[in-house]
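Record Non-specific serine/threonine protein kinase, 117 aa.
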Amino acid sequence: MDRRIRLWMMICFCQLMISAAVTDSNDLAVLNTLKSRWQNLPPDWKGLDPCGSNWEGIKCTNSRVTTLELSFNKGIKAVLPPSIQNLKSLTTLVLVGCSFMGPIPDSLGSLNQLVFL
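=>
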């Protein structure tokens, strides 16, 4: 096979892999807000792509965050922000045993896909 064809195929494959791992930009904005405001996050909340980097407690389907499961992360000191409503594909939110403070935001009611809280 011609070198140029192989190179072109390799570039296409790499672009496909990169685009498959990218978290939806709206979901990424919410998670980055949480990451910047919360203290004592899970240690593996590193990297730029929560879905592609396998952040603890984050599960994704088709680049959308579907699960935020932070049970027993007692070290998290935070308020659950109203912007949580922007995780439009969230089906599961588990915060058992966490040290959250403040009111539960009304915006949780707008998460139409949420089936487990």
